[in-house]
Every structure is written in structure tokens, then in C-alpha cells.
Amino acid sequence: MAWSVSTIFTAVTAVFWLLNAKNFPFAWHIRFYKSLTYFLYIHKPRPEVAGDVFRKSIYTNRSPAMECDLNGHKSNSTYFSDLDIARTDLMVEVFRKLLLDVKKNDGIWLYIPVGAVATVFKREIKPYIKYQISSRVLGWNDKWLFVLSRFEDPKTKKLYAFSLTKYVLKKGRITVPIPEALKASDLWSEEVERKGREGLKYAQGLLDLDMLEEVEI
């Protein structure tokens, strides 16, 4: 039985949208809140990393055609929407205890906004190629916590890009010092603090970008 033009068009359209479901309207919101809910209420970290603030989180995805630019590879702008989900996995897992305790004791959610992010692009990501984003806490000062993320090939570990993000922790309008947050999360020790401050040296360049605020165009 021959297919009609309308049937073929409908089938092709359906396949196209299935292959690009990641870019549906509100798809990012669904991915974000699914990740947030899972790591807040369901996921239990492995015992060997449960008390490690420097634990690694891995988020795996592909880049559909609608994420690609005119050069036929993943558009630079779409790296940041993937980072949102990958970093959420990490931050909620690391600060899960603190998030739930603040909600229980103060009736509000701890807010962990991004203060800045810088990304270095090394190689292109081609359409539908599987890649992973490996993220971990790099270091901190009293106000800012820094997360390093790497876009990699899951098998060969070939590096596509890497990003550095700085976070601040807010309880209402109050900034929560990072060492205080780590103590409340049962993640702090003198050795952990030493390692966190040591990692800060890799983030100094991101901090220095604040000086550009005074530069006129």
C-alpha cells in the first residue's frame, strides 16, 4: 500500500522531532527539575565518595541537529545549557544535606546561583556523538566556590572543551561562607580546606575578570 504525501511528511516530521527532543520547548526545564528532584530526594551517593567534596560527577548526552551551527557541529552557545544540568547534578549531590536542612529549619531553599562561567573550546562535537561532562569542585575562597567541568569523549577521554564556573551560596539575601557550608554538610576538615584553597590558584583568572567592569567600551 503506497503512502500518501501527507503520511510521509508526518512520519518524517515525527522522526525529526524525536531526534531533536532535547530542544523541545520547555525540554531544558524538564531536564533541570528532573535532575534536581532525583539528586535531592532519590539518589544516594556511593559510600566511598559520600563525604568527599571533590567527588566527580558525570553527565552524558548527545548534540542533536537543532543544536548544531552552520559549520555542522555543536553550537558554542549550547554548551552552557548542558553545563546547567551537569553542574546541578554535582552541586545538589554535594550540598544535599545542607539544602534539606535549610528547608527544614528555615522554611526556605538555599539558593546556589552562578556568578560567572568561562569556557575554552578545544575541538568540535559532531551531531549525535555521545559526550560526557565530568565536573568536580576545584576550590574556593570565603565567598565563591569554583567548579571545573570537562566535555570529553566517554571512551578516549578526548577533550572537546572545559569550563570554570563560580558559585555563591545564598540563604535569602545572606551569603553563606563556603567553609561554613561545607561544615554544615559534614564535608569540612583542615585538609579539605587546605586542598580547596590550593585549587583557588587555578581560578584566579576568573576572579580577575571582575576588573573588566570598570573598562568602558
TrEMBL record:
Organism: Myxozyma melibiosi
Pfam families: 4HBT_2
Designated name of the protein: Thioesterase
Family of the protein in this entry: Belongs to the lcsJ thioesterase family.
Database matches in InterPro entries: HotDog_dom_sf, THEM6_lcsJ_thioesterase
Superkingdom per UniProt: Eukaryota
Phylogenetic placement of the source organism: Eukaryota, Fungi, Dikarya, Ascomycota, Saccharomycotina
